[in-house]
Amino acid sequence: MRAGSALRVAVVGGGPGGLYAAALLARQGHTVEVWEKNAPEATFGFGVVLSDETLGGIERADTVVYAALGAEFVRWDDIDIVHRGRLLTSGGHGFAALGRRRLLEILHERCAGLGVRLRFRTPAPAAAALAASYDLVVAADGVHSATRQGGAAHFRPTLTSGRCRYIWLAADFAFDAFRFEIAETEHGVMQLHAYPYSADASTVIVEMHEDVWRAAGFDLCDEAESAARCAKIFGEALRGRPLHGNRSAWTEFRTVVNERWSHGNVVLLGDAAHTAHFSIGSGTKLAVEDALALAEAVATEPDVPAALAAYEAARRPAVASTQRAAAASMRWFEELAGYVDQPARQFAFNLLTRSRRVTHDNLRLRDERFTRAVERDFGCPDEHTPPMFTPLKLRGLTLRNRVVVSPMDMYSAPDGDGTPGDFHLVHLGARALGGAGLVMTEMVCVSAEGRITPGCTGLYTAAQARAWTRIADFVHGSAPGTALGVQLGHSGRKGSTRVMWEGMDDPLPEGNWPLVAASELPYRPGVSAVPRALTEADLASIRSDFAAAAVRAAGCGFDLLELHCAHGYLLSGFLSPLTNHRTDAYGGPLENRLRFPLEVFDAVRAVWPADRPMTVRISATDWAPGGTSAQDAVDIAAAFAAHGADAIDVSTGQVVADESPEYGRSYQTPYADRIRNALGVPVIAVGAISSWDDVNSLLLAGRADLCAVGRPHLYDPHWTLHAAAEQSYAGPAAPWPTPYQAGSRTPPTGRG
To answer: Who is most buried in 61, 144, 219, 339, counting CB within 10 A?
Structure first.
């Protein structure tokens, strides 16, 4: 604010975020009042964890609070993970914690010393009344924020409940480390999260899936009985000590997201604005960082509207990142039962990297000895070989590394006759020379009517087969050791469209061909052509088309064949209940919807050489209500595996036009993870995997066996070789082509 323009500030809520905001604003010379409906000593929970990053912000903003906190902190570096009685420890993590009550006392003292008026046992007036009387209203009134609820029409909140129940308890002794422990009970899997917050006390959180919670009868237990039962279940970890509560109740975690954080001169802060699952220890941290950002914005911007806009702009990206990490961590614990059969060290690595904030490379820096042990268990040939450069055998094919160049439609067949040309030779040849273990073609169509666009390639003529043979010969001759895979598919109702850069999914302006599909449902109602529902005679003909294309593919010399059953194309259209409305033997329950895709798979497998592997790409979710469920995806994968699929390529979406994907880093990998750990079948993970560190992390955690990387290979055809160089790997899994050897080191740059 302009010099001399002191504000009258009302803060609703006396938690850490509200109190710290009050103190920082009072330091700037503003008049601040805080309303807290509870007594000053009243608080929920026990200990809070703050990161070094947050503490650095506090130190820069207020050395008095920083010094007071520093005198109270308990610090430790280790994380202990107990898996089926085996204790594994990973070090180098760095935590600082203190009691929540003591934190509030420090902030009470600081606020009082700065002249903040603290109103305890006093509910705040309505936000509208405060907004009329004060220049700035800070709503720090928690996850159940009355301010947010009252202004819901403007803030537009979304509250999403998790699938687990948890309870905050405490033990009267200090754990030596942050401890995760798994209990496999007769009712299901339960987990303990515990950490010290003083020399003689620890926070203990017990969590379990809602189904387990009900089966165990915890829904009928009061606080005392819940504490006693949890102490018995985790008796060894607690050394026989009791647990006690503090107005503790079993809760389902609620993720809060708001479209807007301010309205007029009212602004949301902390849990009122956003929440992130406790398993990444972020609630108090986020609230304190909000307070720091709000105070800085008030100090530097010319007026309140500008300050609130600057505060939200500064905090939104960091909060969104934290919420994505927290959501991944929360889902991991919700799916915990699917991981407990992993080997102990892999399980521990998986747990440590669950949020994707800790990665393989990061963990190796923190605790190299632990990470090397996980790598040995994984099968890395030696300590100089990263996980991504560990070979994988599928039938008679040994892939020299775990990197796959994703199938990517190029829409570049010359003359529109489906025959690949020089572009495809250069495109696929360049990626093969770039070091990936497996390079996949785009979707190669099994008939002219099965093309997506006139620019799509096919394998339904002898000329096309000769062109693909030329490409396969180049790859095998010039990039020995690189496997070349072909993806066979049929466009179904998504065919007869323009190439992507002329209008994705838009029908051709002329020269359209008739479409066929499981049911007479257009992809984009009112835009796309209505397909004809396939008859049994049509189904037999299309099965023959797939088999004939597979025979040609074998003759071309492809090393692997993938059947495309994803993304809303023909076979995918049979699998999804949103696109298959048939009433015959090929529609209805999943068993029937699987029938035709499995018939096609069997027809292809029968003619594809027995020593060459087959994979199947599926859409594990439609990202739309009523579509393929998580269990459906597992069942679909299981059916293909039972018919002989050697791996499942797990993608998502593109089945219906009105989908709502949850985009983000590695956003599709949880679906591959679920299938792999439920079935034990090898999986290919796809979806915004953009760094070699992510590839190593996914593999080592047992979430994938291969990682398909698309756009990074468009940006850099030598992505895999560069990943090897950046990791100082020069082994047989990523050899530089002999003519390129001189470029295997980073070129020198000019002087600075």
So the answer is: 339
